[in-house]
Design brief:
9 helices, mainly alpha
């Protein structure tokens, strides 16, 4: 069972990652914020790379839980999609960005093992959206003229970019670009034009 110190380190470090970025804080900053020695932090996380990997794994677990929760509480895929967008907007409202966006901006400065885990998380995030899109296509809520994987990548990339620029512009809403993409995604397929 994780110790209270380890849980607190993880929680505070993740907040620092989302607010300042991976390079924006040190173990000294973390020890001051948590109220324990840097030696105690190193006991749980020998290096910052270990801490970064722990954050990514925690977010992967949270993504699975979030998708399960969204599916359990919303019957239609369109409602699930709306709920997912609400979660992203809620994160923006707390002046944070998703850990994917926070770490992606510093990708080349990350340790190699953290980069590999981050790439896996990005693929996994898009796949979560893809599953909802595929269900929506089966239910007739999204046209099958869209490739589900490509549409999921478009959504994932757009949401991450919107969160990053939203923090820079101090905007806490997803905004009209997301509404436009939602309209395009859920609009019915145009009727076939009869050629005579």
């Amino acid at each position: 069972m994780p110790s209270k110190n380890k849980d607190k380190i993880n929680e505070v470090a993740q907040n620092l990652d989302q607010e300042k970025g991976y390079q924006g804080f040190s173990f000294h900053d973390l020890s001051a914020a948590v109220g324990i020695t840097t030696a105690s932090i190193h006991y749980h996380y020998p290096s910052k790379a270990h801490l970064g990997i722990a954050h990514i794994q925690k977010n992967s677990d949270c993504n699975h839980e979030m998708l399960s929760d969204v599916k359990a509480k919303n019957e239609s895929p369109k409602a699930q999609f709306e709920a997912l967008l609400g979660i992203f907007e809620g994160t923006m409202g707390r002046n944070k960005i998703c850990i994917v966006g926070a770490l992606s901006g510093e990708f080349h400065g990350l340790p190699e093992e953290v980069r590999e885990q981050l790439k896996d998380l990005i693929v996994e995030s898009a796949q979560g959206i893809q599953y909802i899109i595929e269900d929506a296509q089966t239910a007739g809520e999204i046209s099958t003229r869209f490739d589900a994987r490509a549409l999921a990548e478009l959504w994932n990339n757009t949401l991450q970019g919107t969160m990053a620029t939203g923090r820079a512009t101090q905007c806490c809403r997803l905004g009209p670009a997301i509404e436009l993409l939602k309209e395009l995604t859920f609009s019915p397929a145009p009727e076939a034009i009869e050629v005579r």
